[in-house]
Design a protein that fits this description.
Chain lengths: 273, 230
């Protein structure tokens, strides 16, 4: 089930709900994000711990709604394209606490309609999500909790350091983020990776507990070397801070013409100059 | 001794007596405060590198990916010091956006973990510039819940001018101490709501000789803290 970037984009449709792994400006499946930005897809709902994936797709006009707890470039705290779109009213937001987002994915992964959580109580997350309900414990404690609804996804896109052709995948950095949950919450799951290895070589590449996804959780694997650029993908590479600054400060149309209008090979050639 | 030194020590004091819990933070001054507390009067504190690694005096001592942080949030074994774009008298905090949420004048970070933090475990705030723009009657979006909205505990607010707490009958904000060289009137003028001011406001304690040495020689030899407090 090795596929190409185009195969992945070919499975997407206008209006889909797409979960994107990673966190902020860390290990984002940016090669796939770039391909979506080029695709002309519209009306997408993104579910993500937001970073430049959100900014890029919002600026490219692909996104109607973002479901998140934050959008940040980490070293640049505020995402400029997302900020602009929010101020202009051109993107809708479903704003949850970070832990609520985790719980929503966990509920979807477990085929539960909701999971109870304290996060959200007393905050304006309840005001800006009028559909959000609370639930009382049926036990003697009678605690009121937020009933965090499941966040089922049409498609999950994640990027890992290594995988085999079957869809077993391994992270090598310090944090798995929530990439396994994004896959478990989705109907169709695509894993991009720095390198595809034979299964024995993948097993030799680290300890068993860093094998984050297995092949029951993945429908297609695509090799995208440097495919998380300009976000970090440690230990393969860190964030390209200089390029991220260019992304954050450049006029988007100029940025798009210079880096996005070609294919992924063209992007990698353009950033190598 | 500089104002930044006083601020770092005031932040460190937020974690005094907390035991073996996770000290989390946003920003350099709170990070230096957490590490200073761990090196001195609160040696049991767990401190991260800001990502997934637990550090004790610069040495790795454990692993804490985000999903485990959420576990500690839910378990209550954590005390975070966050920033705030707006803060009201009960400690309601906003880091999400300025203006109407539906079409904000200025989109900021989003609520991040503030809702979960504030209802699960102690929360403190670090405000590098104490002003009426931050200390407001009503925040535009309640990201972190305050004491009138079910907060677990808003412990301290440390600013470039003063330390504030919530030791009042209705758990609204009170001036606890003013930093050396700052007057009570300056703090009152920089606060956009009426603050409880005790008859006697002590000065914020000065760093000890040991703390100053740790800060200057060990934790921040390049003096980066001076850039955060001006």
């Amino acid at each position: 089930m090795i596929v190409t970037i185009d195969d992945v984009v070919g499975e997407l449709h206008d209006g889909m709900t797409i979960g994107i792994g990673g966190w902020g400006s860390r290990r984002k499946p940016m090669a796939l994000v770039r391909a979506i930005a080029r695709s002309g897809l519209t009306g997408l709902t993104l579910v993500t711990y937001g970073g430049p994936d959100v900014g890029l797709l919002v600026a490219a006009g692909c996104v109607t709604r973002v479901v998140t707890g934050f959008v940040s470039l980490d070293s640049i705290p505020l995402e400029p394209h997302f900020r602009r779109a929010r101020g202009a009213g051109t993107v809708e937001l479903t704003e949850y606490d970070e832990g609520m987002l985790y719980w929503g994915l966990l509920a979807a992964a477990n085929r539960l309609p909701f999971l109870p959580i304290r996060a959200g109580l007393g905050s304006d997350v309840m005001r800006v999500n009028p559909g959000l309900k609370t639930i009382r414990s049926p036990y003697a404690d009678d605690t009121e909790l937020v009933a965090m609804p499941a966040l089922p996804l049409d498609v999950a896109l994640i990027h890992l350091n290594r995988a085999d052709a079957g869809g077993n995948g391994r992270y090598l950095g310090p944090d798995p983020y929530f990439d396994d949950l994004f896959c478990l919450a989705a109907k169709r799951r695509f894993l991009s990776c720095e390198r595809i290895l034979s299964t024995p070589d993948l097993m030799d590449a680290g300890p068993p507990q860093t094998l984050l996804v297995n092949r029951s959780m993945v429908d297609g694997v695509v090799a995208t070397p440097n495919g998380a650029h300009f976000t970090s993908c440690v230990p393969d590479y860190g964030r390209d801070e200089e390029f991220q600054r260019e992304y954050a400060t450049a006029d988007f149309d100029a940025f798009r013409a210079r880096y996005l209008d070609g294919d992924e090979a063209g992007y990698q050639a353009a950033i190598a100059r | 001794m500089t104002r930044a030194d006083v601020c770092v020590v005031a932040c460190a004091e937020a974690w005094r007596g907390d035991g073996a819990i996770l000290a989390s933070f946003a920003g350099l001054i709170p990070r230096l405060g957490a590490r200073l507390a761990q090196l001195t009067f609160s040696p049991e504190l767990l401190v991260t590198d800001g990502e997934a690694t637990l550090l004790r005096d610069g040495q790795v001592e454990g692993w804490l990916p985000y999903r485990a942080v959420f576990g500690m949030v839910a378990a209550g074994t954590r005390h975070v010091m966050m920033g705030a774009s707006q803060l009201d008298r009960y400690g309601n905090q906003n880091i999400s956006c300025i203006g109407d949420w539906h079409r904000p004048k200025s989109q900021l970070l989003g609520v991040r973990g503030a809702p979960g933090n504030t209802v699960n475990h102690p929360t403190s705030y670090w405000i590098p510039r104490h002003s009426p723009r931050v200390f407001v009657e009503h925040v535009d979006m309640v990201s972190g819940a305050g004491h009138d909205r079910g907060a677990h505990e808003i412990r301290l607010v440390v600013t470039d001018l003063a330390v504030l707490d919530f030791a009042t009958p209705d758990r609204s904000m009170r001036l606890r101490s003013v930093h050396p060289g700052v007057t009570v009137d300056e703090v009152v003028a920089a606060t956009g709501f009426s603050l409880t001011v005790p008859d006697e406001v002590p000065p914020t304690r000065e760093p000890t000789a040991e703390e100053l040495t740790l800060l200057r020689k060990h934790l921040d030899p390049d003096g980066l803290r001076e850039k955060e407090v001006r």
